Amino acid sequence: MKKSFFRFKKSSTSASRGQKKSFFKRKSFFLLLGLTLGIILAGSLYQTSVYFSTDESCMICHVHPHVEDSWKLSKHMNNSSGVKVHCVDCHLPPKSHTWDHYTAKAKLGIRDVWGYLTKDSTDFDWERMSELDYAVTYIPNESCKECHYNLFPEGVSDDAVTAHLYYEENEEKLNLQCISCHLDAGHYNPNYKHTKLTTVPGATGKAAADTSAYFKTATEVTRFENFTEQIPGTPLTLNMVAIPGGTFKMGSDPKEAFHKEDEAPIRNVTVSPFFMAEVEITWDLYWAFYASTMSEGRTPPEMVFANNSNPNVDAISGPTPPFGFPDQGWGGGDRPAITMTHYAAETFCQWLSKKTGKKYRLPTEAEWEYAARGGTETPYFFAGNPKDFSDEGFWRKFFDADTDVISSYIIYKKNSRNRSQEPSAVKANPFGLKNMLGNVMEYCADKYDPQAYTKGGANVTDPLVTEGTEWVVRGGNYTSDAADLRCATRDYTRHDAWLKTDPQQPKSIWWYSDIKGIGFRVVCEQNQTSI
What confidence tens digit (pLDDT) does each residue in 186-224 have? Predict the structure, then answer.
């Protein structure tokens, strides 16, 4: 009996062991199979990722009409190093940032496929998508650094070394990406101009033009007529228009379309003769001022104010280096200078006055409206009803606004392509002034008071409002609707809001970080010339 029991027990144990071996064999098989399939899947996904990282695969969805040509003509391709830069090298985080790289790739891929299937590429504004505010979104700074770990290659100029050193030492404070100054690095843009190297502390400007062509003296004015101001120490000029004095009705009637309360009551205003710049101050002129007066980035505002308010000091303290690229990548030259503060505009006038020996300043609000009207009393200085030009109102849901006449005189949201334009894009008003309405808003010398027209009586001469917290701005800009471009329309600065994202403490007294469509033009007082 015992033998039989033990034989049974031994037999049961052997069977149990056999079952365990069989189980582990099956488990190992499935584990090996799973591992093999996982490796195959991972390899397939990797190969798929490699395939969809090629330039050809990117171009399946990205149907930009110039992408291939502009990319192949860029500095990243057309160089002597022989290095070929691919789409993903610039438009995705580097592969060393594995998680960021593949998650960004997945997000972009899903969005691009969806856009390819649902959108018509002919409706895209390709030029708008090539601008700086788009580029900083789609070019990770880490990708620039992955390739350009050496910012000081052989042959780099002294000014470039200064600029890059300043960037390296102040990267967090500047909140500036590489693409902000190198917008044409990946796609060739014949209209792009690199940031001037004189816009950083310590730049020497060794590559300056031959100064033998620079003006030695300012223009002498002996009669009250249009003249071209020569800016001594520069090759630049400024066309000034003689605006005859007179009396006009300032403001708008409540019956005028889109009338606002601060435009009333209408009053009779007399202005003395003055000269006004034909166009808004250009980047060429503003950079000349900047190069001549530039302050170190750490110059305390109180020192600047004290220096510039001292009549015995000849050296004007000008702007500190800007954060980012002030012209937004739209181009400089004759385009209006933008993003400067009211104080910066006043300091420019101070510099120009010292340069020329004349009295240049910002126009008063009354002078500005008088000049903008050009002797007319209609909503605009040309014929037309604001309701016909405006996109506001119920009927605009069904019928398009009239653009033929207004587009000849004004750069506004319907024809601006969301950027400022050069003066040649529009016709002048009856006084010969361009872009008085639209393009960029213009600073005035007055503080803003919504009740200004109710004060001082129905008849005033050369009024100037000196009390208030914000400054008057006039004329609307390239994003404005026609309703806000009437000669009588008033607006004002929003200083704190326009500096909201400025990383400096204290915030800049020179550059705004959150407004693009602001600039200025100057006037010259007649009694300060040699007439």
Answer: 887 776 665 543 444 434 443 444 577 889 999 999 999
Cα 43 to Cα 455: distance, rounded to the nearest angstrom: 79
At 331 the three-state DSSP class reads coil
Of 286, 288, 291, 321, the C-alpha closest to 166 is 321
Q: Which residues of 241-268 are buried (b: 16+ CB within 10 A; e: fewer)?
A: bbbeeeebebbbeeebbbbbebbbebbe
Burial class (CB in 10 A: 0-12, 13-18, 19+), 390: buried
> Which has more confidence, 144 or 465?
465
Tally of CA atoms within 13 A in the half-sphere of 86 that contains its CB: 15
502 CB-near residues (< 8 Å, 6+ apart): 323, 508, 511, 512, 513, 514
Q: Which of 107, 141, 142, 132 is nearest to 187 (CA)?
A: 132
Mean pLDDT of 154-180: 65
Residue 385 near residue 402 (C-beta atoms within 8 A): no
Q: What is the pLDDT of residues 373-403, one digit of tens each?
A: 999 999 999 999 999 999 988 887 888 888 9
Q: Do residues 341 and 431 touch, judged by C-beta distance below 8 A? A: no
- Amino acid 208 reads A
User: What single DSSP character describes residue 511?
Assistant: B
pLDDT at residue 207, as a whole number: 40
**Which residue, 322, 359, 355, 360, is CA-closest to 341?**
322
| Residue 252 token pair | 């708008």
Burial (CB count <10 Å: 0-12, 13-18, 19+), residue 386? buried
DSSP calls for 30-87:
HHHHHHHHHHHHHHHHHHHHHHTTSHHHHHHH---TTHHHHHHTSTTTSSTT-----H
Structural contact between residues 523 and 357, judged by C-beta atoms closer than 8 angstroms: no
Strands 518-519 and 441-447: parallel
Alpha-carbon gap, residue 221 to 227, rounded angstroms: 7
Please name the residues in contact with 112: beta carbons below 8 A apart, sequence gap of 6 or more.
Answer: 61, 62
For tokens 């003769």, the residue is 273
191 neighbors 329 (Cβ within 8 angstroms): no
Residue 93 is classified by DSSP as: -
The pLDDT of residue 197 is 39
Half-sphere CA count of 71, side-chain side, radius 13 A:
18
Work out the number of other CB atoms within 10 angstroms of the CB of residue 408: 12
423, two tokens: 């003066």
**Helix (H) or strand (E) segment spanning residue 307:** helix 301-308
How far is Cα 468 from Cα 59, in angstroms, rounded to an integer? 55
At residue 163, φ and ψ (nearest 5 deg) are: -65, -45
Residues 365, 474 contacting (CB under 8 angstroms): yes
